[in-house]
Amino acid sequence: MTYFKTDLAKTLKKRSTIITFIAMMLIIFVGNFGFYKTSFSDGVNYFPQHIPLFLGLSMVIAAVGYISFALGSFAITDEQKERGYIHVLECGYRREVIVIVKYFEMVSICLVFFVFGILFHSALSYLFFGWNISNTIMLLNFLKSIVLSIIPISVIFFVAILMYLLFKTEFFAVCASLFVAVFSDTLVKAVNFFLKIDFLGKVTAYFPAPTLSKISKMFTENGMSGSSESISLLNTFIDLKYNMAFNLLFLFVIIGISIFIVKRKDFD
């Protein structure tokens, strides 16, 4: 726990983290203010009240995802450059602790940026456009979509850790993780176009990227319609049970491989 707190505090206090945080807040403010100026004419709002909140929430989740991933990836590599892993081992921590701590550090960075981003955006939405029960339900639905995304996003985070353990460079770690997040299912489909293996084609629907797309689509359809219907977290999870099971299995496999590698890795 001490290693986690110290390492997370070091990452959050870095100039790059602080500048990124300020930049994100400025983008959220400019986006809300710009939409406010274009939405109103002669004191009349020509857009449905739920649209600004929905667009802003979508922007926040996209920004937080990429920001936390990038900062987390650099946090993994910075310590290697500073020979920090050797110091951690000399302090008596087991090697697998490094893998677990780096994962939770990436998640924590994501949560910090997400919480402040969503609070700031909600406050601006209330200030510029007002607030009603539909907005509250939309915000709750948005939070539910985040909960559903934890497992597939965790897969992507752990791929970044695994790739760095394998290649020792930010470039390969970041590119490999983005590949899993965006292109892995597309590549498998392209290969299967020639192999014609039915099972392989079906499995791609359960990859992290298609799973996140399904969750995003659920939120998008509900948000754009301005529906005041609350999305059932349990029912949605059940609908995605095969996606979640596949991603959970994928996650445990990557964790196991990462721990196996880090136990045999030479940090000198």
Give the SSE layout:
Blueprint: H1 2-12, H2 15-39, E1 40-41, E2 44-45, H3 50-81, H4 84-90, H5 95-129, H6 133-167, H7 170-195, H8 198-203, H9 208-224, H10 233-239, H11 241-263
Antiparallel strand pairs: 1-2
Protein name: ABC-2 family transporter protein
Organism: Anaerosphaera aminiphila DSM 21120
Transmembrane segments: 18-36, 51-76, 103-126, 146-167, 174-195, 244-262
- β-strand percent reads under 5%
N-to-C span: 24 Å
Record field, number of beta strands = 2
Over the alpha carbons, how many angstroms does the gyration radius reach? 21 Å
- How does the helix and strand content classify structurally? mainly alpha
Total helical elements: 11
Mean pLDDT across all residues, rounded? Answer: 75
* Helicity range: over 70%
Biggest sheet record? 2 strands, antiparallel
Low-confidence parts lasting 5 or more residues at pLDDT below 50? none
Q: What string, H for helix and E for strand, traces the elements in order?
A: HHEEHHHHHHHHH
Side-by-side strand order of the widest sheet: 1-2
Overall geometry comes to: globular
- What number of domains? 1
Keywords: Membrane, Transmembrane, Transmembrane helix
Protein name: ABC-2 family transporter protein
Organism: Anaerosphaera aminiphila DSM 21120
Transmembrane segments: 18-36, 51-76, 103-126, 146-167, 174-195, 244-262
In short:
Keywords: Membrane, Transmembrane, Transmembrane helix. The protein is an all-alpha fold. The protein has helices at about 1-10, 15-40, 50-80, 85-90, 95-130, 135-165, 170-195, 200-205, 210-225, 235-240, 240-265, and strands at about 40, 45.
